[in-house]
Amino acid sequence: MKTSIKLLGLLSLSIIFTSLSCKNAQEKNGAIVNTTSVSNTTQETKGKITLLSPSEFKEKSKDHQIIDVRTPAEFKEGYIEGAKNINLKDDDFAKEITSLDKDKPVYIYCRSGHRSGIAAKKMIDLGFKEVYDLQGGILNWEQSNNEVKN
């Protein structure tokens, strides 16, 4: 019995530590940006990255540019309706992303929020005006009972 209690305590501590480590890693890498204005490299205009909950993302992204920055294999496993796959890890990411209209809002997501945070910063540097990032990525989207297309 004492062994079970000790194991349960250790498991609880490791879960707490892991979740805090992941949160800190996301914050350090810029994945979590709440309604923050970020200057682009030319300093002539400012772009804004806004973190959205799944419900806000669903409501606001309709009829807008939606980009999934995961790999093509991940995209095939399931994606948000209307999304275009532009892989952040692809050498042509900057070229492909700049084919979008920089003056119109862009809604982006990845698996958990990390890669889309990196992509959002790159997009602001490339001159995008409004980038909306899905908080927690498609995992959070699915946990919020939203539909995923295959």
Poorly predicted regions: 13-44
How can the largest sheet be summarized? 6 strands, mixed
Shape: globular
Radius of gyration over C-alpha positions, nearest whole angstrom: 17 Å
In total, the number of strands is 6
Number of helical stretches of at least 4 residues: 6
| SSE arrangement, N to C | HEEHEHEHEHEH
State the helical fraction.
40-55%
Which structural class do the helices and strands define?
alpha/beta
Please report the distance between the alpha carbons of the first and last residues: 46 Å
Beta-sheet strand percentage? 15-25%
Placed side by side, the strands forming the largest sheet appear as: 1-2-6-5-3-4
Report the mean per-residue pLDDT as an integer. Answer: 81
Write a concise synopsis of the structure shown.
By secondary structure, the protein is of the alpha/beta class.
Task: From the structure above, extract its key features.
150 residues; alpha/beta
Q: What layout of secondary structure does this protein have?
A:
Layout: H1 2-28, E1 36-39, E2 46-52, H2 54-60, E3 65-68, H3 72-77, E4 83-85, H4 93-97, E5 106-109, H5 114-125, E6 130-134, H6 137-143
Parallel strand pairs: 2-6, 3-4, 3-5, 5-6
Antiparallel strand pairs: 1-2
